[in-house]
Amino acid sequence: MKLGLNMGYWGMGNDADNLELAKEADRLGYAVAWVAEAYGSDAPTILSWVAAQTTQIDIGSAIFQIPGRTPANCAMTAATLDSLSGGRFRLGLGVSGPQVSEGWHGVRFDKPLGRTREYTEIVKMALRREKVRYQGQHYVLPLPDGPGKALQLTVHPVREQIPMYLAAVGPKNLELTGELFDGWLAIFYSPDYAKESLASIEAGRAKVGKTMAGFDVVPSMPLVVGDDPRACADPIRWYAALYIGGMGSRDKNFYNQLAVRMGYDEAAKAVQDLYLDRKYDEAAAAVPFEFLDQTSLLGSKERIAERMQVLAASGVTTLTITPSTGDLEERKRTLRVAVEALELSGVGD
To answer: Which among 40, 251, 266, 304 has most CB atoms closer than 10 A?
Structure first.
C-alpha cells in the first residue's frame, strides 16, 4: 500500500501552505498528490503549479468535473499536464452533483452513467491520438450538420496510457468504474463495508475480462494524530456533516445514501435534517463517532498503523490522507507520522 496526499481546494488563503505540503510529501516519498475542484479553484491550474515545484510525486485530479469540460477539452488538459509533469499525471473524473452540474455548469444531471461512459470513451479515443469520431446519445462528434471535421490531438502525452480514475459511490457507478477505469477514488471508505463496493467493481472488471490485479483502490481519509481518538474525531465532524447533510438536496444526496447503506440510516437522516435547517453545529455533533472512526485515521501512530493493516487487507492500494488539523508545521508532522505508521504496519509498498 502506498500513500497519497489530498490537498482539496485551493484559493482560500491556503495556497502557500498546500504547496509546502506537496513539497514535503514529495520529499517523503508519497506516491501522488490529489487536487479537487467544485466551483472555486480549478484543478488543472493547481496541478501544473504543483508539478513545476516537485520532482517525483504524481499529480492527480480528484476530480475533474465531467459537466465542466467537453471530453475533447479534458483530453487536451490531461495530455498537457502529463507532458509538463514528465509523465506524472493521473486523470480522476467525476460527475459532481445535480446542484453544481445544473446550477454552475448549466448541464442537466440526467443519465449520469450513460454520460460518463460516452465521455470516457471519447477521452480515451483522443488520448490514443485517433481522429475523434463518435456517435452517442449524449455526444456526437463531429456535429453532422455543419463544417466540423474529425480532429486528432496534436499533443503527445509522455505515456501511452494516462491512468484514469472515477470518483464513484453507488453500485452501478462502481461497476462502471471497474469496467472502464484503472482506479477508484473513494470517499467515506469503510473496511467493514468495502466488500460490497469492491464486489461491484469486480463485476465491472469481469465484464471486460479483467481481474482486480493492477486496479488502484484509493480512499481519501482525514488523519488526526492524538492520544484520544474521540477527541481526534471532533475537528472532522464538520466535514462529515457537510457531505452527509449538505452535499445535495434532501431527495438526492449520494453521500447520505452511502451512510444509509453503511447502516447509519437514523443518524444520516438526523444529520441531514439538522444541516438543511442550518443547525450546523448540531449536525456535526450528530455524526456518530463510529462512522468517523471507520472512515478516518484517528489516534496514536500505533493505532493508525493498526488501521492501515485493516485497510490494506480490505483491498486499499493507495491510501490518500488529509492532514486535518493544526498549522503548517503540525500538518507536515502528520505527513511524517503517516509514513512512520505505514512502516510500522508492515503493509507499505
So the answer is: 304
